[in-house]
UniProtKB/TrEMBL annotation:
The keyword Nucleotide-binding applies. InterPro entries: Cyt_trans-like, NadD/NMNAT, Rossmann-like_a/b/a_fold. Gene3D superfamilies: HUPs. Residues 17-168 form the Cytidyltransferase-like domain. Belongs to the NadD family. It is an enzyme of class 2 (transferase). This is Probable nicotinate-nucleotide adenylyltransferase. Its EC number is 2.7.7.18. The gene is nadD. Keywords: ATP-binding, NAD, Nucleotide-binding, Nucleotidyltransferase, Pyridine nucleotide biosynthesis, Transferase.
Length: 194
C-alpha cells in the first residue's frame, strides 16, 4: 500500500488526525474535518482509516475505505487521506492509535499532531491501548455528537453514523444526502454493504 496522500512540508505545523473506521465515510466526518480546519488552527486534516479495528470490528476492505475517504476528501481543501496504518500491517500493535501516532511522529518529525475524536469516544478511552501515551503524542480535540454529552466549545454534529448508513443500504434504502455523492456512487458501483 502506498504512503499517505497527505502532503508534507513546513516546520512546527500542526496536523489534525481524524482516525476512524470510515465504513463508510459520511457527511458528519466531513463536518468534523471542516470544523477542525476552521477553528482549531491546524494546517491540514488527515483522514486516517483504520487498517484493522482495535476492538476487532469487521470492516469493509481497507482499500475500499481508503478510496472512499479519498473521494470524500475531494470535497474539502486541506483534507487529505493518510494510509500510514497499512505500513504497520506486520506490527503487533497495528490499529492502536498510540502506535500509529508514534509512527507518524517518526515519519514527520517536523509536525505536531492533534487527534480529533467525537464525543462518543470519550467514555471508552479507558479501554484504549495506552490513552495516556495518545495524550502525550497528540493534542486531543473533541467534537460534539448529538446523543452524547455536550462538549464545551464545540458543536454537536448530527446523529449520522456509518452503522445507520450500512443498515439503510442493506435494506435497499437511499443514502443520498448522508454520504458525499462520490462515496454513494462508489458504494453502489462496488456493491458494498448489501
Ligand atoms: N455524527 C458524528 N458526530 C461527531 N463525530 C462523529 C460522528 N460520526 C463519527 N464521528 C467521529 O468520527 C471518528 C470516526 O468515526 P467512525 O468512522 O467510527 O464513524 P461512526 O459513524 O461512529 O461509525 P460506526 O457507526 O461504524 O461505529 C470518531 O472519532 C467518531 O467519534
Ligand atoms: O488505540 C486504541 O486502543 C483505540 C481503540 C478504539 C478506537 N481507536 C481509534 O479511534 C478512532 C475511531 O474509532 P471508531 O471505533 O469510532 O472507528 C480510530 O482511529 C480507531 O483506531 C483506537
Amino acid at each position: 500500500m502506498a504512503g499517505p496522500d497527505a502532503s508534507g512540508g513546513g516546520t512546527g505545523r500542526e496536523v489534525a488526525i481524524l482516525g476512524g473506521s470510515f465504513n463508510p465515510p459520511h457527511v458528519a466526518h466531513l463536518m468534523a474535518a471542516w470544523w477542525t480546519l476552521a477553528t482549531q488552527g491546524v494546517s491540514e486534516v488527515w483522514l486516517l482509516p483504520s487498517f484493522r479495528h482495535p476492538f476487532g470490528k469487521a470492516l469493509a476492505p481497507f482499500e475500499d475505505r481508503v478510496e472512499m475517504c479519498r473521494l470524500a476528501a475531494r470535497e474539502l481543501r486541506g483534507v487529505h487521506v493518510c494510509t500510514a496504518e497499512a505500513e504497520l500491517a506486520d506490527d503487533p500493535l497495528v490499529g492502536k492509535t498510540a502506535r500509529t501516532l508514534e509512527h507518524l511522529h517518526a515519519k514527520h518529525p517536523a509536525y505536531r499532531f492533534a487527534l480529533v475524536v467525537g464525543a462518543d469516544i470519550l467514555p471508552d478511552t479507558d479501554k484504549w491501548y495506552r490513552w495516556d501515551r495518545v495524550r502525550e503524542l497528540a493534542r486531543i480535540v473533541v467534537v460534539g455528537r448529538e446523543g452524547y454529552p455536550p462538549v464545551p466549545g464545540a458543536p454537536d454534529l448530527p446523529a449520522i453514523s456509518s452503522t445507520e448508513i450500512r443498515a439503510r443500504i442493506a435494506r435497499g434504502e437511499d443514502v443520498r444526502g448522508l454520504v458525499p455523492e462520490r462515496v454513494r456512487r462508489y458504494v453502489e458501483e462496488k456493491g458494498l454493504y448489501r
